[in-house]
Structure formats: structure tokens, C-alpha cells
Amino acid sequence: MFSDKYKLIVLIFLSISFLFYSFYLYKKPPHETENATALEMEGKMIWQKKKNCTSCHQLYGLGGHLGPDLTNITQRRTTPQIEAFLKNGINQMPNFNLSQHEMEALISFLTAVNKSGNGDPRTYKLYIDGTISQ
Amino acid sequence: MELYRNKLSIPFFILSLALLMIGLTFGFIGSVQYLVPDFLKEWISFDKVRPLHVSSVVFWILVTAMGSVITFLQEHIGGSIKYPPLLKAQFWVFAITFLLIIISYFLGIFGGREYWEFHPYFAFPIAFGWLLFIINVFSSIKNFRNQPVYVWMWLTGLVFFLFTYIESNLWQILWFRKEIIHDMTIQWKSYGSLVGSWNMLIYGSSIYLMDKISGNQKYSYSSIAFALYFLGLLNGMFNWGHHIYTLPTHHFVKHIAYIISMTELILIARIIYLWKDSLTTAKMHKHLRSYQFIIAADVWVFITLILAILMSIPALNVYMHGTHVVVAHTMGATIGINTMLLFAYIFDVIKDSTINEKIFKIGYRIIQISLPIFFLSLLSAGIYKGFWQMQEQHLIYGSMLKKLKPAFLLFSSSGFFLVLGFFMIIFIALKSLLFIYSSKNKI
Question: pTM value?
Fold first, then answer.
């Protein structure tokens, strides 16, 4: 049976490794991009706080399942088309009564998401060892 | 003494069962909205229904886990928890906060992220309540030497939860939210570990209960138990990257997650398997209801284990990520494993004598029949969507969803029976808990 001393050593080792890993990730963003603009940040808060868009929609496949993934929506749809969806709603999506400024902010956020990468799994390369590349 | 001790933990179970009822009700409403888009749309749209369902169910898991740790810890130390007033304060902090969160969702007040959509202000009482819990549990253990594995699991789960919960709120600092991929990486890092932390509490309690039923504590002190515990902790800390294989984040995050993979379910499968061998039929009958729920969880461990292994392979993950396969896996883990184990703890407190046998049997059977159908309906919807999302030319999203209607019909109808079965079990459990609680007051 392991003694308490060995158990503690393993626990401390794991905890220190975890903390090191965590703080490395906090400190090092995956992309050195420009900081988000004020309008993008406002849009992000509308996405998250005001309308809880993630209940139905996904970014990079993370989120709800009722609506489509919106990672690259600004690439597939024009601004007037997106505004039309927001103004009229569709199926389960109600009209959220966003102001023109709020719509601009939300679209600005979605444009920034689109620039961050590709969310279409059809374009990923799959390798025999089970890994993928985007 | 036992009566007094149970009086401290029973309110947690009563609260958690009430939360489960709320979660189940909104889960069913949400499933109907999949089929009938206008169903209650003006009164309570899906953006409110989903957090009402998800948060209530997460709170059910957390509060029952708390109740089980309090109950079993007191049994383990053979006395009352160190600071009963602090425990009462903890209970009321959580009860009032969860009530306010549910009301805020109804009013359309959000602010958080997926699973924790509530306003960030509510993060403070939750963290505070958890801190009270940590203080009480650590203070109650008089001697930390030579403790069984479940005590280690409870203690690490408690601390690990607080760390990851704070981490899940780091987005409130501008540095963490200003770059979308960095933000999402930290978000899913915290979520993956958060689940690992409450699983530590739940699985720790399951090992305690197994020991109690079998009457044999040998396993809880064995080297293999500790080796598996550390492997579980390793997974909780480093395997979260399998949630974000498709996110353009650091490659090493994905490679670490792929290598370590999701073996935590293998660990619990092994633990349950070893324990089961040592049971005698007579002892099984003594705690029959708890045993039945553990057996059900055992089956779901194997089912979700297979799915988890498949999902941990990135090249297969792209077919399943963002589809209902992930939802099926989550349902298998949260209902099939967690909820079954949590009911085992509640029925261990209740004991069999106060239970309405007939209603229990019907409710239990309805759950065991409807849950696999529920799971398979989600799995089939997810597989269809998975192939859809990998096709070169595919239907528009709305048309694809229409094709999934038969699966959603099955999902909603089996969901109805699942809710019915659980309500029957909850009814029995609540009646018994209230009876035990009130009869103790008279003593």
C-alpha cells in the first residue's frame, strides 16, 4: 500500500503541473491578434448576456443545437440578410427587438469570430493516426 | 445521533429533488419546442428554457453531491460535522441563490456563459457557499493520516471545484475575453475540469456506499484504488481539450487531451466491478434500492465509456462534435451515471422500509426503459447530423432539422416517460425524506 508520503508527493506533483499548465494558457493566447474593438466587445456581450444566443447557436461547434453554427456566418450571408433574420426571427427564434446599433455590434462580433478561424469540419484534414488539422 | 446528523443533510436532498423537478419540466418543454417551434414561444422562448433546464440539472447534481458528502462524511468520522450553523448557512446561501437564478432566467436576465448563464453577480454567493462547505469538511476530519480513497476524492474534488469555478469566471477580466479563441480555450478548460471535480465528489461517495453495502473497506485503502484515483485526477486536470478539437487553439492542448483521453469512466467501471464481486446476496437485499440504482449506473458507465472513447479520437470527433451525439453522451453521463448514483445515495438515507414498493417499481422500470430510447433517439439524430455536416453539398440547416423530426419525436416522447418515471421516484423520495425529517423534529 502507498504510504501517505507517496500519495502526497503524487498529489503535489499533479497539482503543480496543473497550475503551471493553467497559468501558461492564461498568459499565452493561441493567436497574437489585435485586441477586439469596443463594438465587437459590445456585440459579444449581446451574444452572451442580452440574448443568450448560445442557447441555440454554436461557435466552432460549441453551444446549442437548435440553430446553425454561426462561426463563419458573415462569410456565407450578407449583412442585410443577417439583419433580416434578427428583425423577423425564424422558427423557434423570436424577434429580439434589437436596435440598429445592437445589430451592428452583434454583426461586428460575428465578423471577428469569422476572422478567428474556420469552423467548417468539411475542410479539415483527417489523418490515419486519428489527429486532424484545420 | 444519527437522527441529528441526517437532519443536517436531508434539506440538501429535498432542495436537490425540487431542482431536479424544475430541470426535468423545462427539459421536456424544450424537447417539445424542437417539434413545435411556436410552443410557448411568446411566453418562454428556447433561450430561457435551455438555461432553466441545464442550470437546474447542474444544481441538482451539485446539491445532491453536497448532501451525499455531508451524510457519508459524518458516518465515516462517526460524529457530526464540525460547524452545523455553517452548514445551515451554506444551505440557505445555495437555496436562495438558485431560486433567484431561476427567477432571473424567467425574466430574461442572463450574463454568464453556456451552462452558467446567470448574471455574474450570482457567481459570488456560489463561490462563498462552496468555501463554507470546504471549511466545514476539512475541519470535520480530525486526522488526515491513513484516510481511505473516498476522503481523498472528496477533499480534492472540493478544492478543484473552487479553482475551476473561479477559472470559469475569468472571462470577466478583460485580458481573458479580448481574444475569442483564447477566451473559448479557457472557458472549455474550466468546464472540462469542473465536471471532473464534481465527479470526484460523486464517485467518492459511490465508493463509500459500495464499502458500506459490501461491509468491506479493504478496497478503499488499497494501492490500486489510489492509483486509479490519481489517474482520474490526471484526466480531470488535462483531458478537457477533447471538447475543443475543432477550435483553432494550441495544438499541444489537443495532443495532451488525445493522449490522456477520457479514461475516468474506465476507472469507475473498474471500481464498481471490483466492488460487485464482494457482495453477498443477503447484503444486497439490505440496501436493495441503492443497489438497483448502482447497477443501473454500472450499465451506463459501459455505454458512455464506449462513446467517450470514440469521441476522444479527433478524426472521429469531427463527425460527432456539435451534433446530438454529444448531447446523447452528456445525457448518458448525467442521467445514466450521475443521477442513478445520486438516487442511490438518497435511497440509502431513506432506507427501504418507508418506500411505497409499487410506485417505486413502476417508476424505476419506466426510467430504465425510456432512458435507452431517449439516448438512442439523440444518438441517431447526431449521427445523421454528423454525416450531414461532412457532406460536400448539403441541405440547408432548417431542411436538415426537418429530416430529424422522427428522431425528435422519439426524443420528446421518451423524454415524457423519463420525466414521468423520475417524478414517481422523486415523489416517493420526497415523501420519505419529509417524513424522516419531521419525525426527527418530534424527537
Answer: 0.93
